[in-house]
Every structure is written in C-alpha cells, then in structure tokens.
Amino acid sequence: MIITLLTDFGAQDYFVAAMKGVILSANPAARIVDITHEIPPQDIHAGAFNLLAVCKDFPLGTIHVGVVDPGVGSERRAIVVECAGQFLVGPDNGLFSFIVQREGNCRIHQVTNQSFFRHPVSSTFHGRDVFAPVAAALSNGTAAREFGPQMGALVELESLTPRQIVDGRIEGAIIHIDRFGNCITNLTPQHLGANHRLQININGRQVTSYRQFFSQTAPGGDEPFMFLGSAGFIEIAVRDASAASILQVQRGQSIVADTGTVRPETSSG
C-alpha cells in the first residue's frame, strides 16, 4: 500500500522521519512516497494545489497524508476523505478542498476514535500522533468508518471555478505560483478554446500570446505568454524569468479573461 506525505515541515528537523517511523512501526510493508515537505510554512493554499496536481498520478487505493496545519491542537477537526478511489488524511482546514471540488462525490469521516492514535498525543504534532497512525491503519485494511462519524462537508477554500461576469468575460484567479515564477490560473482548456483565442488581463497588462512550450519564445525577452500546464490549468510564464515578478502578481489575485483575436504563435528563435 502506498502512503504519500505532503507537509510544510522541511528537511532540517525530525518531523518527517517521526511520521515515517510511526507508519512503518504499524505497517513495515508500507511504501512511503514523499510528495514534498517544502510547502511554505502554514501555506494551506500551496498544499491544496500541490495535492490536487499530483493525486491522480497515483494508483487507486493510495493514502495521501497532508499536514499543513496551523490550527494543530485547536478545535479544528481531523478527517479521512474517500475520494476518487483514494484516501486523504489530515486536518479539516481546506487542504483537501480543491480535490473534493474537482472530484465531487466524496465521503468524509471525522477522526474521533482515539484508539488509533499514538499516545500520549502531542498538542503540536498531530502529524505523528494522529495522521500517521490513522494512515497506517488504513493501509492495514481498517475501513474509514471505523475512525469516526461521517460528515456532510469539510472546510473549503475559495472555489476553483471562474466566475462569469458582464459582457461574457470571465473572472478568474491566480491559484498558485511555482518556484519558477509561473502563475497558475484557475482557467482550464475549455476557456482556452480550440483556436486559443483567449486573452488575460492581469495588473493592467494583456497576455495574448499562447505557446505550447517555453522554447517557442526567443530567449532574453520579458513578454509573458500563456501555456497549458501539466496540472491541467492555463499558466502565465516568461521564458527564463519569473512571470510573477515581472507582472508583480501574487497568489489569489484576480484576473479577467475573454476571447481575443490572437492565435497560437511560433517563434523562429
């Protein structure tokens, strides 16, 4: 059974190793895969996007443990989500909401059965004492219903669905900025259209060019362009530079998109 880990713990301290130790103590045959432990501290949105982008790459039955948990020790709930043939284990703080929005038809259980926990439970390290042992129990065949009662809904971040506004334009948003400075929007191929007749207004600049890959743009320039990213969203990039810096963009920022007159361009550079 595969168990993935995504956290904001970094690699400097013992936290990730402690979680792995708890899992392997309960199930020595577990296959643990690190998604990333470099989520910025307390950045639930970044965690939610990275989980959304990667979860479909894993086989059915995979258990994804997400720990970006600024509310650890508070009244925030611990949950297990059954969704699209996989499991999500972690805090109920929006971390799994992008996946639930995309997939729908998910079953959510609040984790209340403390017999599965590692005791004593630290008030600041539920990754080790709650989420890791719950994931290990799932990998050993425990049904999600054994952890606690079913819930009707979880805490959600903002909707991933762009909003239609007047005159047919679409209001979207920058939902993530990756380490290269590429700006991932919540626009999808359906907004791009068959002829790539899309233009995006962001911070007063029009992004109208579409590329299939980065080297279709000549090096050395600072002109932003759109491309379809590997996570399935339209992204804005600048070749060999940070589009976020050039456009002075932050995550969560609104964008306005409409159909333009621009078709795909191919650079000879």
Describe the structure concisely for a colleague.
This protein is α+β, with helices and mostly antiparallel strands and 269 residues long. The chain is built from 6 helices and 15 strands.
Can you give a write-up of this model?
By secondary structure, the chain is an alpha+beta fold. It has two domains: 2-151, 3-Layer(aba) Sandwich (Rossmann fold); 163-259, Bacterial fluorinating enzyme like (Elongation Factor Tu (Ef-tu), domain 3, Beta Barrel). Helix content is 20%, strand content 26%. It has six helices and 15 strands. Helix 1 (15-26) runs parallel beside helix 4 and helix 2 (44-54) runs parallel beside helix 3 (97-103).
Observed structural traits:
6 helices; disordered C terminus; 269 residues; alpha+beta; 7-stranded mixed beta sheet; Rossmann fold; 26% strand
List the helices and strands and how they pair.
Layout: E1 2-7, H1 15-26, E2 31-36, H2 44-54, E3 63-67, E4 78-83, E5 86-91, H3 97-103, E6 107-110, H4 126-139, E7 150-151, E8 163-164, E9 170-177, E10 183-185, H5 189-192, E11 198-202, E12 205-207, E13 225-228, E14 234-237, H6 243-247, E15 254-259
Anisotropy-based shape: elongated
The number of distinct β-strands equals 15
Query: What's the total helix number?
Result: 6
The structural class is alpha+beta
CATH fold label of the largest domain: Rossmann fold
Radius of gyration: 21 Å
Q: What proportion strand?
A: 25-35%
Mean model confidence by pLDDT: 92
Tally of distinct domains? 2
- Terminal-residue CA separation: 47 Å
> Low-confidence segments, ≥5 residues, pLDDT <50?
261-269
Sheet of most strands: 8 strands, antiparallel
Query: CATH homologous superfamily of the largest domain, by name?
Result: S-adenosyl-l-methionine hydroxide adenosyltransferase, N-terminal
Helix content: 10-25%
CATH architecture of the largest domain: 3-Layer(aba) Sandwich
Order of helices and strands: EHEHEEEHEHEEEEHEEEEHE
* CATH uppermost class of the largest domain: Alpha Beta
